[in-house]
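TODO from last week: model Family 1 glycosylhydrolase.
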Amino acid sequence: MRPAFMFATGIENSCPTIDGGRTRRDEMDACGHYARWKQDFDCVQELGLWFLRYGPPIHRTWLGPGRCDWSFADLAFNDLAARDIVPIVDLCHFGVPDWLGNFQNPDFPELFAGYASAFARRFPWVQLYTPVNEMFICALFSAAYGWWNEQLRSDRAFVTALKHVVKANVLAMRAILDVRPDALFIQSESSEYFHADNPRAIGPAEVLNARRFLSLDLNYGRRVDSQMYEYLLDNGMTREEYHFFIGQALKHHCIMGNDYYVTNEHRVWEDGRTAAAGEVFGYDELTRQYYDRYRLPVMHTETNLAQGPKGDEAVYWLWKEWANVLRLRNDGVPILGFTWYSLTDQVDWDTALREVNGRANPLGLYDLDRKIRPVGQAYQKLIADWREVLPTQSVCLRVPVVRPRHYAQACGAAGEHADAPAAGARTPTEPHNLQGG
């Protein structure tokens, strides 16, 4: 199969808790996916997409250590395979099952690795994963802002959540690679920047601009700067825990997915207060900062904007984000995919899921009645226009993605069942075959 640019969308599966853990914000339920999942997959195909950010609802699937209810996942993932849609599997999206508590639980990383392994064994044809979505934001909103899950507000709680979340991601990657050695991991992470409001705010802004890299620094085994090292140790990370992250060697299996919204840039005052700054630098500049730091292939893994009163606001935002992607590619940054997130409108993200209002947010390619929005039509046309141009003109990566039908054919040719990898067989493509242009 000729490598293709990865145009994608996602089906929102956020599931944090609020109200001291008493209320679960299940976006798959709120957006009607459990009842309309086949229709949602029809919409993915109608758009001309082959890639879908998608995952089973962790709180309904993972019932305890070594115990899973795969009934819904079996239906959904078997249908995706039949349609030859490539899932980018999102295993943990801002929440954990009630029995685990929250991200302060030190048992979470090892237990989550077991869950990831169980998923990979049940669906061995799946190759692309985001084990933990937006690790930085998950820890920030849960343990620094006090919005979700543990609802704490301290540096120590934030560092505790962060080290557990990133360790869970690392151990999950290892566990999945044990099952699928050619697995690729797309770290969907928020790209942030903090602008100093005045000269006295330069110091606080510099601290925040260093902190934004912590999740990916730890995940990729990159040494943090001295100020962040002291920050981590001052707030509960031990030297042994830090050395665990620095000793990782999984970077060559990874694609740096970064998310960008109009809220990702911030204005900082001298007392440390922040507020949304709107789009100042934009996706192009922020992605360049992250790429210069990690030197990994890039995928734009999330963006959206509300349709707005004029009806074309989201369409224009799509055009701007795509222009940023093309600029990066033309400048030699190996960017290999783009995602409008999510497929349908979302519910209550205007309050970051902190309030149960049942308010539909017009952010999707389709509304909650599964009627295509103008941005959905624009994305459909963008995909049709650019799909055949980019692979031939790209100076970027050749990504060894194995489509579901090709995995089944390879297993069949080896004389094995399609639901299990051929014993002792070489995997179709190895991660080190990722090639830069």
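Done. The domain at 6-433 is CATH 3.20.20.80 (TIM Barrel).
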